[in-house]
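= Paired protein data =
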Amino acid sequence: MILELDCGNSAIKWRLMDGAGLVVHRGRADDLESLIAQIVDLTEAVSRCRLVSVRGLEQTKSIVDGIRALGVRPEVVTPSAALRGVVNGYDDYSRLGLDRWLALVAAFNRCRAACLVIDIGTAVTVDYVDTSGRHLGGYIAPGLPMLRRLIVKHAASVSLPDLEREALQSNLAPARSTSPAVESGCYLMLRAFLNERLSQADSELGSSYRVFVTGGDAVIMNAHPKVIIAEDLVLDGLALALP
């Protein structure tokens, strides 16, 4: 079995793969302690561990040490200028976030065509890859959690717990109370940003390209006809980086 870990800014996603490449178990943990609790009974079957982290060196080291304490030695992916047919588009390739890099590598290898790769999580990233596998660059913007926190920080009458209990509304008519008004406003801002990036893709990538969306709030793009929701895009890229 292979244990794969995606250590993002807000949570740690993990999955356990069998020898045929099928997902046997998966989960999501808020911190190292809860991760260990979820996987401790599975590690006897683990022969290998792959890990990607966008956290700082100390936090990443803590996670690696925690996994090692279970008798599993993680292999940690590092930046690269090119991988699996994709050329990193940053001036300094080591500065491109590893989650973005692995996601766009996985997307291109899935379709072998021009693609727009969107990750909607704590932050939102948008990246363009042309038909030859050349990364053209991208954008970073706040996701819904960041937008909510920004409102809370500057508006004392709004509380984060109230916002976190609000579901995205299917009816985006003007709200009649503060929490749904904030939630709808943040949602509409994010959706407008993403729709504009999709419009730009025609000029960057031509008329024929794929759109891959991943991340905790990928559902925002569900209704778009071109979108392919790819839940494990970063982990799929991790498997390509450390085959």
Summary: The mean pLDDT is 89.
